[in-house]
Amino acid sequence: MNSNPQNIPHSAPSPLERAGVRLVILGAGESGVGAAILAQQKGFDVFVSDFGIIKEDYQAELKKYAIPFESEKHTEELILNANEVIKSPGIADKVAIIQKLKALSVPIISEIEFAARYTTAKLVCITGSNGKTTTTLLTYHILKAAGLNVGLAGNIGNSFAKQVAQENFDTYVLELSSFMLDDMFAFKADIAILLNITPDHLDRYDYQMANYVKSKFRITQNQTSADHFIYCDDDAEIKNYMATADIKSQKHPFSIEHKVENGAYLNAENLMINLTNTHQFDMTINDLALQGKHNTYNSMASGIAAKILELREGTIRESMGSYKNIEHRLEFVANISGITFINDSKATNVNSVWYALESINTDVVLIMGGVDKGNDYNMLKDLVKQKVKAIICLGKDNKALHNAFEDEVEIMVNTFSASEAVEIAYHLAKKGSTVLLSPACASFDLFKNYEDRGNQFKAAVKEL
Fold first, then answer.
1. Is 128 part of any known ligand binding site?
2. Which residue in 133, 142, 349, 436 is a FRET match for 24, CA 20 to 30 A apart?
């Protein structure tokens, strides 16, 4: 199904184009450097500025293309004269340079918005508070297995803008965060997927859940009746917003709680995809590579997208059965003396930990902690009571964890390194149980990032 039959770019071209027009890029990470390469290719006067230290490999890439840049500063006279600014999603609106640009009415957009101006490829776009990386990679896996000429970008993989500049993909699967969506205006997705909405990053949304919900629903903006919106019909925030939303695209709900029309649902242990004017697809959930309730949702969303794209059912079934999950997300590490070790270091919010605990059917020794983002742990208490035999705190300040859980578990231990946490967990766990690293917190107190935390955990397990 060609969702873009007229080969129209997915974001309106800037009225500023092009020669002599100054485009300033704030942030020189993957997205910023990629945007700079595309902007230079399109003839803009490009300048890149990063208030932090630009990594050596990104500096080398900018030098290769002779793109001017500055590191560890924002020089206002080189930035405020911009005709348009592309902003890294990590830069908050309250930052001084952004406020000054807004006071001058300089348009500020995301790399995704910019790159979409220069491609006519089909765009499958995925957002949600949890599960978006898994669903993005599963969707990419299915499309690639079906023989599509497909790229992977957004919050994962290589820069979308750089791929638009240097590759020639017919389809892209894009993982989009709310921060990216906030700086997207004329962008349009052919297929939009919204997995769930739970409280996260509320500090960027004035601690107003309604603002965060609106941000997530920006994935449907500019869609027409030729486009598709896939969404979870079991999510309260999504259902509440949908009740009054004016969404013009074709709607495809998915649910594990009730039967739906023109979407996906469970019939006993069978995943059913029943789209209008297509053959009904079914697959036992026991054959899915990704197990657990949350992963059934992820598989439903990916499966609907594959059916919309009219892929062969055999390919969809085989791909959903063969997919390997991403590193640091419910990643099996080892089974030692009958104890299973799982690395879920990417679980940096409470809802992710809930999903992890829900998917495990054994007793759990839970390793959690780090930089607390003002977490509300109440939603975990029932699962912790049912499954968790001990909590090992891995962080510099564990007060919030003790306040939340010391009445729910018999044993709580404070540790300050991955090796110490793993060694204690091994002694506390029994044969047949699971040691789960699922922190609910950022990693910056003891580790470089969640990957470093996960890698140190895996290394410590292998030392046992």
1. yes
2. 133
pLDDT of residue 5: 43
34 is in an annotated binding site: no
120 a known binding residue?
no
At 200 the pLDDT is: 60
Q: What is the pLDDT of residue 203?
A: 65
Domain boundaries, the chain: 22-109, 114-322, 331-463
User: Which stretches of the chain drop beneath a pLDDT of 50?
Assistant: 1-3, 5-6, 15-16
Domain 114-322 has CATH 3.40.190.10: no
β-sheet bridge partners, residue 8 = none
The per-residue pLDDT for 213 is 87
To the question of whether residue 225 is assigned a binding role by annotation, the answer is no
Which class in CATH covers the domain with range 22-109? alpha beta
β-strand 122-127 against 281-284: which pairing, if any?
A: unpaired
Is 52 part of any known ligand binding site? Answer: no
From the candidate CATH numbers 3.90.190.20, 1.10.530.10, 3.40.50.700, 3.50.30.30, the one assigned to the domain spanning 331-463: 3.90.190.20
Sign of CA dihedral 201, 204, 209, 210: negative
Q: Is this structure's pTM higher than 0.85? A: no
The answer to whether 75 is a known ligand-binding residue is no
Tokens of 59: 């500096």
- Helix H, strand E, coil C: the string for 143-181 is HHHCCCCEEEEECCCCCHHHHHHHCCCCEEEEECCHHHH
Q: What is the pLDDT of residue 351?
A: 79
